What we know:
single chain, Ald_DH_CS_GLU, oxidoreductase activity, acting on the aldehyde or oxo group of donors, NAD or NADP as acceptor, oxidoreductase
Amino acid sequence: MAEVAGVTVDTAHWIGGERVGSAAAFTDVSPIDEQPIAEIARGGAAEAEAAVTAATRAFPAWARTSREERARLLHAIADGVDKRVEELAQVETADNGALIRSHRRGVMPRVAHNFRFFADWLLQLGHDDFETRGHRNHVSWDPAGVCALITPWNAPLMLATWKVAPALAAGNTVVLKPAEWSPLTASLLADIAAEAGLPDGALNVVQGFGAEAGAALVAHPGVRRISFTGSVPTARTIAAAAAPNLTPLSLELGGKSPLLVFADADLDLAVDLAVEQYDNAGQVCLAATRLLVEASVAGEFTERFLARAERLVQGDPRDLSTDIGPQIHRRHFERVDGLVRRATKDGARALLGGGPNTDLGGLYYRPTLFTGAPAGSEILSEEVFGPVLTLQTFDTEEQAVAMANDTRFGLAATLATGDPERAARVTERLVAGTVWVNCFFVRDLRAPFGGSRQSGVGREGGDWSFDFYCDVKNTVMAPWEK
Ligand SMILES: NC(=O)c1ccc[n+]([C@@H]2O[C@H](COP(=O)([O-])OP(=O)(O)OC[C@H]3O[C@@H](n4cnc5c(N)ncnc54)[C@H](O)[C@@H]3O)[C@@H](O)[C@H]2O)c1
Ligand SMILES: O=C/C=C/C=C(\O)C(=O)O
């Protein structure tokens, strides 16, 4: 047990409806001040095995539960989340350093929405029926089995429930392995699900490191689906571990997304969209970190951007006036700083920031904007996952599209333009899972979500989630009467 921000959090695993400890533990550190906040059970192969066994046992009964009953339970979990928004927000902020105001207003309500949405979507899933020469085809969405869900630290509970909710809705049982830098809210979710009446073993939480608990889970032959959100190198390791079992995978990975600003854009809107990319201290997979601006307005854009960005308040994420909190962890901070230092060495010039926030110390990194990075340099091609943007200019639409697509990623792209015909032309040519025009992060859970190229494999959301989490079956019935 740990007491975090006044909330009691169980630091053990949650397996088969029971709290299970481990001989080993790891220390969870708050990014706010780098102080330890909890000692967490450090699971490995034994805990992964126990959780898959519990989930396998719970599967047949949960899979047979009526869709209405599953939907009812998911709504009850959503109600439990709603009741505990403040506690969840406080604990998540202590654990991953993201803003308390975002957790309260946006993230935790979205967690509840993840459950409500997939509960409702389950009830209206289409079961196609069609005829072939008098034979009836009936498509059904059968539960697949045990799902291993591996999630990152940048939006821990939001990204975990984006998987847990559809997996459970589909009639599967799940083993969730949250990121070791932000393990706490997954444990609170286990409490909430149990209080809501979810059967034992339907949701299991195994804590621990990726290379230990995570690796054991994804290699387990009893697992029928792996859904992973995280980095490209980890995705490769997981895909290799899944290969011998041919376990189906859904991978939501990193990005180096562009924001294209055309001269015909509303420049105030474009500046707003650009500054928004520092949200969550830049630790957002979808962030449009490459600002591509039409040369004729680049001077004006830069001036307005700097005026706006200089007003951003950096500090304690529990403070309501704070816009930018800390980086998640010392190791991540050092990685961000390494990328910034090498960018400077490569010849890029920081128009804003360019290093740690030495006034605040700790894990606070200054929002940074680079210009003049040489073509092909690391800062233009590697995902930083910190508050670091680059600015480049283009002269023609053709050039803008080529620059936007000049990346091995393809998660998202955003454009600001006042011309609907240009918007249509450009969006058609962009390689990205999501394209936003004159807006950013507007999310409808019915929509497919995922990445092209190395930003991922597959899509989740609406039918796409059920397509992944189900064994879709077609039954062909001959006519009964001659
Ligand atoms: N596309 C999206 O939806 C999305 C959303 C958020 C974050 N991300 C990406 O996630 C990355 C940042 O997250 P991160 O640093 O936590 O990623 P990460 O890949 O280091 O870790 C993610 C998870 O994988 C686990 N893991 C690590 N090694 C493993 C292994 N061998 N087997 C099984 N599990 C293992 C970790 O413990 C953690 O739970 C960024 O690249 C970001 O773009 C993508
Ligand atoms: O940092 C990545 C954020 C991803 C967002 C979603 O997965 C979502 O909105 O469902």
